[in-house]
Design goal:
Layout: H1 18-32, E1 37-43, H2 49-62, E2 66-71, H3 83-96, H4 98-103, H5 108-111, H6 134-149, E3 155-160, H7 167-179, E4 185-192, H8 202-210, E5 215-219, H9 225-236, H10 242-252, H11 256-268, H12 278-287, H13 291-303, E6 307-308, H14 309-315, H15 320-332, E7 336-338, E8 344-347, H16 350-358, H17 362-378, H18 385-398, H19 402-418, H20 422-436, H21 441-445, H22 449-452, H23 469-482, H24 486-502, H25 509-525, H26 532-542, H27 549-565, H28 569-585, H29 588-604, H30 608-621, H31 629-645, H32 649-663, H33 669-685, H34 689-702, H35 706-723, H36 726-739, H37 746-762, H38 766-779, H39 786-802, H40 807-819, H41 825-841, H42 847-858, H43 863-880, H44 885-902, H45 905-918, H46 940-950, H47 955-962, H48 966-980, H49 985-994
Parallel strand pairs: 1-4, 1-5, 2-3, 3-4
Antiparallel strand pairs: 6-8, 7-8
Length: 1003
Amino acid sequence: MLGSVQTQSLSPEFIGRDAELAKLGAALAAAAAGEPQAVLIGGEAGVGKTRLTEEFVAAARAAGAVTAVGGCVEIGADGLPFAPISTALRALYRALGAELTAAAAGQEAELARLLPELAESGGGLPRDPHDEDGRVRLFELTARLLERLGADRTLVVVLEDLHWADRSTRELLAYLFRSLQRARVLIAGTYRADDIHRRHPLRPFLAETDRLRTVKRIELPRFSRAEVRRQLASILGAEPADAVVDEVFTRSDGNPFFVEELACSITRGCATGISESLRDLLLVRVEALSDDAQRVAKFVAEGGSTVEYRLLEAITGLDEDALLDALRTAVGANILLPSDSGEGYRFRHSLVREAVGDDLLPGERSRINRRYARAVEADPTLVRADERAARLASYWYAAHDPAKALPAVLRASVEARRRHAYAEQYRLLERALELWDDAPEETRAELRPADYAEAYPACGCHPDTPLSLLDLLAEVTVAARLGGERERAHAMAKRALRLMDRDDSGDDPLRAAWFWAQRSRVTEALGRGDGWDELSRARELVRGQPPSAAHAEVLTMIASWIMVHKSGAEGVDIGRRAVEYARQAGARDTELHARVTLGLLQADGGDIDGGIAEVEEVRRLLSGDHAVPGAIARTYGNLSSVLEGAGRSREAVAVAREGQRLIGARVSLGIRSWLLTNEGESLISLGRYAEAAVALAEALRYADGSYPRAGIEMHHGFLALLLGDTEAAVRYQSAARSGLLHDTQPQHLIPSRTLALQLASAQGRFDDARRELLGAIDSGFATGTTRFAWPLLAAGAAAEADGAAEPRVLERIRAAARELSRPTPLAEAYALVVDAELARAEGRTEPDLWAAAALAFARQERPYELAAVRHRHAEALLAAGPEGREEAGCLLAQAYATADAFAARPLRDRITRLAQRGRLPLDSPAPPATDPVESLGLTARERDVLRLVADGLTNRQVAEVLFISPKTASVHVSNILAKLSLSTRGEAAALAHRLNLFAPAAS
C-alpha cells in the first residue's frame, strides 16, 4: 500500500538467543516426527519474544513447515472470543485452501464459529440452548482439524500476547495441549511474564500447563552487556564507545526494545538526550512525527491491536494523500507497521501503543471511540463480520454512550454465545447490567427478548414485550454457569429472586421456579448441598401452573435430580408430566430430554421393558441427520446402560457403538469416554475381555474428570481380578476409591464396594471383605440400584462361604435380599446364587439350588458367571455322593472350557483343583443341549414375545400375558422382526412353527 518505505532503528542482526532457538528447533524436529509439541515463551515486555518467534517461524518455513501466527487483541472486557485462534486458522485457510476445507468436511458449520469462511452463508449455526456440550465439541473439532492438517505436513501455529487472551482462548489452548494425538503440530504461545500478577487470569493457565509433560516453557532473559554492545553496533553501524554501552546498558537494564529506543535517541541526536522517564522514552519518537502522523498514531492506539486502512480513512479526517503520507512517516519511523494481511496497520511494539493510548485525554479517548463506532455503523464492511459486534461494543462503551452501548454489548454477547464463548458472553452481560440503569428508558423499551435472550424458555409473551432486567439476569446466570463462574451464577439467581420479591413479581411463579432450579444446579456444583431444597421451592411454585416450556424445563430438572439421587415412583410421575407439558408447549428438545429421563426412572422403578421402550422411541426420533450430538450421546449412553443392567449386554454393546458412530467427533472427549466405558463394561459381561481392555484403555485416555476416570479404573479392576492379576487390581481399586472419595451416587459407590470386597476375598482378607459388605448393607440399596446390589450380595455371600462365616452376617445378607426387588431375569439369577452361597456358607450341600442358578444363568448373557456357578454345582454334586459324579464331570468340563477360553486364571485353577480331587477329566465336555431360539440372538423377553406371537396373540394380548404395556410389546415385536429380517408378524409365527422353536405350543 505504501510501496518502499525506509525504516529506522530495527536491529538488522538477530542477537543471541541461541539456546532458545535450539529448544524451539528441537520441538520442531519432534513435531515433524509426529509428536505434537507445545511451547510457551515468557519474558518481560520488550525482551524480544516477537523477534524470537519471527526468526523461528522463518526457519520453520524454510524447513518446509506451514506456519500461522495469531495475536490476542486487547480491547477491554469485550475482547474478541478466540481471536488469536481465528486469525491463525484464517492464515492456514489462506495457505492451504481446499485442503483445509476437506479436513473440515462435515463439520463446516461448527468450525465456522472459529473460521467464518467455512460457513456456507457467512456465519456459524445458532447455538441450541439445550446443547451444553457445544463448547467442548468445538474444542474437539478444532483438535481433530489440526490433526488432519498435520498428518502429512508439519504445522507451526504461534499465538502471541497470551496475557491478553480471553478465557475461551485459554481454555481451547489448554484443551489442545492435552488432547492433540499423533500429528505433526507445534503450538507456541508468547506472554508477558512481568504482567502476570497474582490475580492475572493467565496465571492458572500457566500453572495447569506446568503439570503437562507435553508443554515446554522458555523464559527469555534480558541481554548481557556484551549482547547490548552487539545490538548497539548493529543498529549504529559502528562499534559504540564503552561509555555509551555502559550508559545504555545501565538505563535499559538489558531490555532489547529499550536499547533500540535509546539507540534512536543517540542516532537522532535528541536535544533532550536520553530520557529520564520510560514513558517519555517511548513517546519521544512519536512526538517527533508530523502532526498528521501523530494524529494517525493516536487513532491506531485506540482502535485495537490492528486497524484497517479503510477504517482509518473514514475516521481520521485526512484525505487519502495526507493519510498515506502520515502512514509512510509513521512506518518509516518504526512506530507503525503494515499488518500481516496487508489491509491495516499496527504498532511495531505494544509498549509504544500503550504509551500513546495512555497519553490521550479522557475526552479525546471518548471522541476517537465515537468516531470508530459511527464509522462502523455507517459502513459495516469496514471491519470483518466476525469482529464487528465485539468492536462496536468496545467502541460505544469507551465512548461513554449508554444508549448506544447497551444494545451493542447485548449484540456482542449473542455473538459470543453463538461461538460457545460463554466466559466472554458472561463478561459482556455483566457490562450490560452495568449499563442497564444508565441507558434511557426508550432504549430499553426497544430491546426484545427474542433478539438477545434464550436462557429462559419462551413464555408466549407478546412479541412487542420489552427485554426485562429479569430476562437479562437469566442470561447472566446461565452464561456464568457455563463459563465456569459458578459463584456469580449463584449470586445472579439470588439477585433475580430478590428482585422478584421486592417488585412483588409473585404473579410469575414459573420464572421464580426457573431461577430456583438454576440455583439448585449451582448449589450442587459448588458443593454447598445436594440442591434438593432449592428444587423443592421450584416444585411448590410450579404446582398447579398450566403447561408451558418453562414449566416443562423445571419439571425435567426435578425428575433428573430424582433419577440421580433417589429414583422412585415419584420421579416417574414428574417425568411423565414433564414430557406431556413439553409436548403441549412444542418444546421438542425439552420433551426428548424428559423422555430419556422418564425411561431411566421407569427402568429404575422396575419397569425395565417400559423404560427401554421409552428411550428406544427417543432413539428413533433422533435418527434424522440434524439431531443434536449431545442428545444423541445422552440417549445412546443411557440406553446402553439400561440394557446392560437388564442383562442384554450384546444389545448394549451394539447401542454404545452405534452411538459412537453417529456422534463421530461432534462431541467432547468426555462423552466419547462415557460411551466407550459402557461398551467396555458390557464386553466384560460377555467375556470378551481383550475387546473390553481396548475400549476401557481408550475411554481412560479420553476421560475428563475424577468420577469418570474412577469408574473406568473400577472396570479395569474387575477385569484384572477375572484374569488373576491381583497386583493390577489393587492399583485400579485404589485409584477408583480415591477418585470417588467425595461421590455420593449409588451407581458408583456400590460397585466400588463390590470390587473392594472381591479383591479382599481373593487375597484372603475376609474380615475386610465383610466390612465392605456390611458397609454397603448399612447404607441401604435405593430403588433402581438392584443391578449393582445383587452382585454385591452374591460376592459377600461367597466371601462368607470361603472364610469363616458368621451367622449374624448371613442373616444380614438374607434380610437385604428379602427387601431387594428382582425386576429382571438377571436379578433373579443373582438371587438364586445368593441362596446357594448362603447354603454353602452354612455347610449345607444343596445341588438343587446350584442347578436352579445354573439354569437361570444359562438363559443370560453372562458366560463367566455361568461357568462359576457350574463349578459350584459340580462341587455340590460331588459332595452329595457318587451318583452325581458323571453330571459333575460334564459341568466341570463345560466350566473349564469357558474359563480357559477367557484366560480367567483364578476360576480355571479352582476348576482344575476340584477336577483333580474328584479324578475327573476336563478335556471332553458333554455338548450342551442346543436351544434353537438362542441361535437367533433374541433376548429372554423377546423369546417370550415370539412364543406368544406364534400362538396368534395380538400386541395387547401379549402385553396382558407378560404384564407390560402394549407399546412395549410393539417395540419387542419390531425388534424381533428386525433381528430375524422379517416383515410381518405372520412371517415370524411361520418361522417359529417351521423351526419347531416352541414345542409343545403354549396353550
